[in-house]
Amino acid sequence: MSAQRMTLEPRKLSGLSGLAGAGRSLRLAAGLITLAIPLSGCGTGALWDKFTAKDDTFNEEPADKLYNEGLYLMNQRKDNKAASKKFEEVDRQHPYSDWARKSLLMSAYSFYNQGDYDSCIGAATRYVTLHPGSADAAYAQYLIAASHYDQIPDISRDQGRTEKAIAALEEVIRKYPTSEYATSAKAKLEGARDQLAGKELDVGRYYLDKRDFTPAINRFKTVVTRYQTTRHVEEALFRLTEAYMAIGIVGEAQTAAAVLGHNFPDSRWYKDAYNLVKSGGLEPNENKGSYISRAFKKMGLGSLMNTDRG
Asked: How far apart are CA 143 and CA 305, in angstroms?
């Protein structure tokens, strides 16, 4: 008997389970019929589209194909925005491939061509960080510097971008002195330094016009001691002559005029400085202990000497 009960119980449970399952199946079928009615009435509706839509969120393509499509878009179609998306897709789909390395650099370049400098800096910085020993690391560093350089504002505005450009350009020259980009970086560096000198001179003139001589002198002094190779140094030396004569420090005024005459004898600023010193009954005369004299000696701009030119 016990054996019979053991064989009956499972059947009994099975039967109950089957009935319950049949009931659930009927209810499910009814629900599907109800659902099918509105679907059949709007087969092209949003809900129908959701059920029948093809899942194409990720469709991997060969890395070289994506890369070459990016080059085509950039070089032939001149569509740098679309090109950068192709290069980014290489990095997304094939992150550890050599194509991804190449695409990261090309992405930075395409951003630069678009004028999207911040994105260029981001991509190029990532390249230098991930591939510092690559043959193209110098170019990536140069792209960073060029992106900052191209955003240098006029001298009436804050020169934070100019400072960043100078730092990045100096990095190119320091890290890759023999690369082809170092030559271009040096030329841009002079332009950036000239910009900062122009800013200092502009602010100095503002103070000078207000007869606020101490801050004016400090600005002109910065040009003379830090930016001797820029085109603004001639005027800065004249302005120092002017400011020092105004406050009666004639020794520095004479030195500024002498240094100006020795290094830039044909400058119109020297003629003005000479006449200004002469109007006070003095001659241009260099004090070799002056910061003005030392600054020019440090730059190797000649052995300064007393100057008396009219």
From this structure: 44
Using alpha carbons, list the distances in angstroms from residue 34 to 30, 40, 210: 6, 10, 87
Q: Are 91 and 103 in contact (CB under 8 A)?
A: yes
Using the predicted structure, report yes or no on whether residue 135 has a pLDDT greater than 90.
yes
Non-local (6+) Cβ contacts of 153 within 8 A are: 159, 161, 162
Summarize pLDDT for 172-217 with one digit per residue, the tens: 999 999 999 999 999 999 999 999 999 999 999 999 999 999 999 9
Query: Is residue 189 within 8 Å of 170, Cβ to Cβ?
Result: yes
Q: Which residues does 285 contact at the CB level (< 8 Å), separation at least 6?
A: 254, 255, 258, 306, 307
Tokens of 258: 């002498």
Q: How far is CA 290 from CA 252, 255, 273, 296, in A?
A: 7, 7, 17, 10
User: Which run of H or E residues covers position 52?
Assistant: helix 46-52
Dist CA 26 CA 23 (whole Å): 5
Mind giving me the DSSP string for 77-122?
A: S--HHHHHHHHHHHHHHSTTSHHHHHHHHHHHHHHHHHT-HHHHHH
Over 60: is that where the pLDDT of 55 sits?
no
CA dihedral 64, 66, 92, 99 (to 10 degrees): 30
Four-residue CA torsion sign, 46, 51, 52, 54: positive
